[in-house]
Amino acid sequence: MTDHSDEPQPPAPSKGISRRTLLVGGSVGVVVVGGAVAAGISFSRGTPPLAVAKTMIVNGAVWTGDLTRTAEAVAIGRDGVILGVGSNEDIGRFKGAGTEIIDAEGGTVMPGIHDAHQHPLSGAEGAAYPSLGDESVTVAELQERLRGFLASTPDMEPDGWLVVVDWNPAGLTDAIAHRDFLDVLETNRPIFLAGSDFHNGWANSAALAAAGVTSTTPDPEGGVIVRDANGPTGLLKDAALWAVRGAAPELTDKQKQDAYRAGFQLAASLGITSFMDAAGGRESVETFQDLRGRGIVHQRVSVAQTIDADTATDPEGALAQIEDARAAVIKDSGVSVRTAKVFLDGVAEFPAQTAAMLDPYLDGDGSPTDHYGEQYVSTDDFTKLATTLDAAGWQIHTHSIGDAAVRTSLDGFQAARKNNGKRDNRHTITHIQFCTESDYPRFAELEVIANMQLQWATPSAFTLDSLQPYIAPHSYARQYPAGALHRAGARLSGGSDWPVDRLNPWNQVRTAVDRTGSTSETGGPLNASESIDLATSLTMHTEGAAYQLFQDGLTGRIEPGLAADIVILNHNLLTSPIASVSDTTVNYTLINGKVIHDPSRRQ
Ligand SMILES: [Zn+2]
């Protein structure tokens, strides 16, 4: 079924894939009271008329978001707002002429996933490039894969760029990335490997030359051109990688549109009903408004405005830039802008080691080095920036991986509160791979949201080989401290960081609980004491993230009066073994009561 317009729809074919059925009228008498039509109940004198449901979800295990309240059924009005939640019998009172019934068949019915940190445009566009699949490989294996990509695009010789995505910068098993390994390939084409972490890039000599990077090119603000005795090695960190990648031609409009259509349908099929673009600009606001207007994006969209490291030192200039982007927002377009994004540091894994740490990195044999990572914005500059943006009513979302960057965020938010008084700006720190214990209670004290990507909290190439030998053991043991932050009263919200990782919110929900997930390399957990329970994890990915996105009072729970942003799952999450949560299939996704994913669209 692909037509989800508000017009009455014909009954589903009896052997159709869709299990939705349309009941016209009712088997019992139809009562008309004051213009409202209700079937299956009779009104006693004085009972106010009930609205008629456009859609009813029945036979579900409804997780409303309120642990004390369980239910079987949900009624949704014509305006997309939830009319009632209760037993099948209670909700039957809302059935009327034309009410469409969705049978949840015992599966969990819950609020849609709010993905409060992702990079949706690059996530969708990524599908248009050849991918290395984030796999760990040797240099020889990598070269073989690249030869395959080159051979499959012979018309791109002699100088068309080969841009490859999902290179695992922590997964090169027998060497450190160097342009020499790419230069030996039998081509003159510029080659650029985009790290799946979005913090590392790897270019061959032709790509460096095409981007104008030479031995004398200074490091850009917020980035590093890695060098050896012969000049740039081809390994590029943060802003430096974007400078080189930016020299490659963009996708064509047609390639982009196809990629967006596929990418946002994927998000819908996984149950995502709201998301935040965590690093956008004015142009992304316009793109999303266009995509929503054309029915390619159905989700509620927030676009965080990136303030680069250079602009961060000029609070008034930064404010002018983001206010300009906000001015592009069209009322009721479904796109909102009220968040400023600041990258305070990079990533902790070897070889990047750009996360700002309070303790120095280790040399791999347990001895401290003199390297503490890179903090791209100083505490002093961030404090001034935070104070200015907070006073102007902006939410600030800081990328902070290292414990020094987390502390800088908290210090800046504390100063903003001291200067401006308490405001409801819901400042957020994202990632929080490391946080020193004395900072845990500051999240609750300052009402700072901890936005975390807990699918990373598993033993993997990232957390084992390229991290464990280089991080002080006491910090490593408390990595991704979701449990401790929760116990300290912090409000948690979830985000995928797609396409830094594959988009699978259900594996996120699960890994937050068992710290193992579907990809554990050891089969066991990472720092099991930092686990949170399933209800907390579900809340983090629904109501918690909705709060961060200023959608509380609108979505994030299943409650009369809220918008029907609802997913129906193929099993009961709360009674299934935790490991099975990763494999959850979303049968239906509804936004504002409108079905945007149903069984006929399942891949
Ligand atoms: Zn991100």
TrEMBL record:
Alphabetized GO MF terms: hydrolase activity, acting on carbon-nitrogen (but not peptide) bonds
One Pfam family matching this protein: Amidohydro_3
Domain of life: Bacteria
Alphabetical list of CDD domains matching this protein: YtcJ_like
Transmembrane domains' residue ranges: 21-43
Keyword ATP-binding: no
Presence of keyword Transmembrane helix: yes
InterPro entries: Amidohydro_3, Metal-dep_hydrolase_composite, Metal_Hydrolase, TAT_signal, YtcJ-like
Segments forming domain Amidohydrolase: 100-597
Key words of the record: Hydrolase, Membrane, Transmembrane, Transmembrane helix
Stated name of the protein: Amidohydrolase
UniProt organism field: Microbacterium rhizomatis
Lineage: Bacteria, Bacillati, Actinomycetota, Actinomycetes, Micrococcales
